[in-house]
Specification:
single chain, about 140 residues, mainly alpha, 2 domains, two-stranded antiparallel ribbon, 4 helices, elongated, basal RNA polymerase II transcription machinery binding, RNA binding, Protein LLP homolog, LLPH-like
Length: about 140
């Protein structure tokens, strides 16, 4: 037994009616989104605000520049001496003096929230970035230190 064509034709006819009705609404919505008036006038200022066209090369350059700035900021943070910050433990009431650079307290222990794997990952990333940015003055190839 095959499919009944009668119900299929009825469904297609109803879908055509719906399509015509919704096409008008969609057209109005699109015109409103693009800034086109009822008379068909286009406001170019609004169009420039809707989207900014960038090439793949520009996007890659911006991404690379942002990563370099982040690495520079992290390197600058590593170069800082660090400050001593006093933290009072709520349960015991003891005062711990932490260094903001090393995260160690006066006894040489790390705070409970400190994750050594995370710092290892960060230092590896920084070293990799440093090697990538290194340019040897006397050679044609970039040779890391």
């Amino acid at each position: 037994m095959g499919r009944k064509n009668r119900s299929r034709k009825r469904r297609d006819a109803m879908n055509l009616i719906k399509k015509e009705r919704y096409a008008k609404k969609d057209l109005e919505r699109l015109k409103k989104m693009l800034g086109i008036d009822d008379q068909g006038n286009v406001d170019m200022k609004d169009l420039s605000e809707v989207a900014v066209v960038k090439t793949a090369k520009q996007i890659k350059q911006e991404k690379r520049k942002k990563e370099e700035e982040e690495v520079q900021r992290e390197l600058q943070e590593m170069d800082d001496k660090g400050e001593n910050v006093e933290v009072v433990n709520e349960k015991t009431g003891k005062v711990h003096i932490y260094n903001t650079k090393t995260f160690k307290d006066q006894h040489g222990s790390y705070p409970p929230w400190f994750k050594p794997r995370k710092t290892e990952r960060k230092t590896r990333k920084l070293l990799h970035a440093r090697k990538q940015r290194f340019k040897q003055a006397w050679s044609t190839a970039n040779v890391p230190l």
